[in-house]
Amino acid sequence: MSSHIFVKLKRLASMGARRIQNRFLIFVIIANCRFYAKIRLNNNSFKIL
To answer: What backbone torsions phi and psi does residue 22 show, to the nearest 5 degrees?
Structure first.
């Protein structure tokens, strides 16, 4: 799966679609931040319990 995503990013870069690539990277970063935040909140709630 990861290799397929890298191929898409390479195609976008070669096409010169920097805006689309930047938006995609920002979306991935935000999604990862939310995912880690949920894990931290869950861990904290379990510690309190």
So the answer is: -65, -40
Q: Where are the alpha helices (DSSP H) in the chain?
A: 2-15, 18-48
Residue type, 20: I
pLDDT of residue 49: 54
Is 20 in contact with 12 (CB distance < 8 Å)?
A: yes
From residue 34, give the alpha-carbon distance in Å to each of 7, 25, 26, 28, 39. Answer: 25, 14, 12, 10, 9
Domain boundaries, the chain: 2-48
> Quick check: 1 pLDDT over 60?
no
